[in-house]
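Consider this today:
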Amino acid sequence: MEDLNTRDRRGYTVFLALFTVKSINKKYSIPKSNTKILKLSSLRRRVALAAMSCDPEERFTFFWKSRSPFSQFHPSPFHGKPLYCTTPEDSVGYTFAHCEQWMMFNKAKLFQDEESARKILAETQPEGCKALGRKVKGFIDILWKQENESIVKAGNRLKFTQNPDLMRELMQTDGTTLAEASPFDRVYGIGLSAENPMARFRVNWRGQNLLGEILTGLREELKAEGYGPGPVSQAGSASK
């Protein structure tokens, strides 16, 4: 049974949800005769129901696009060895411009497509790396689903441990769940924009938020290893 404080917080969450959607009505001055009001009324009910079923304690750090330090596209040079070494050069490692390049390079290595791997390594723009990754030969969906989270996590560990400023940004999200608020991505993102009032309640997310969950778990691991907010300590230096 919920204690009084929990019920109070949940009640406040419901109130906030209803107020948010009511504000949408007011902001856009939608007349009651307009059919769109029916959709907003339905949205209001859905938000309220979601609020009652959500965890009132959970808070989120929403992010999206390359300007965010948590994006796979964010410029963040780091050095590392691929998870799947298939050539002598792999044992030395490479410098990657961002996590998208790391992810797609490892995707090519996983499926032993050396030609695509070379092209991805030579491509510095994240959009280009993503496009090349979609053309990897020998792709097997079930194998990719088994391995992709490990690839993304390993790349982000290298990214944050080798970039102290980004590490500070990550640690400042402590106490929240990171969520990629992409309205277009239902695998790595939540399938909703941060501006959508439905995004405030996990139960309404249309995507799996794989990237956000990976980053949240990684942050907790790094905290346990001695990393923390503010200037990176000697124990949490890039050389670790």
Notes: The longest helix spans residues 4-28. DSSP finds eight helices and four strands in the chain. Residues 69 and 122 are 23 Å apart (CA to CA). Confidence is low (pLDDT under 50) at residues 1-9, 14-38, 231-240.
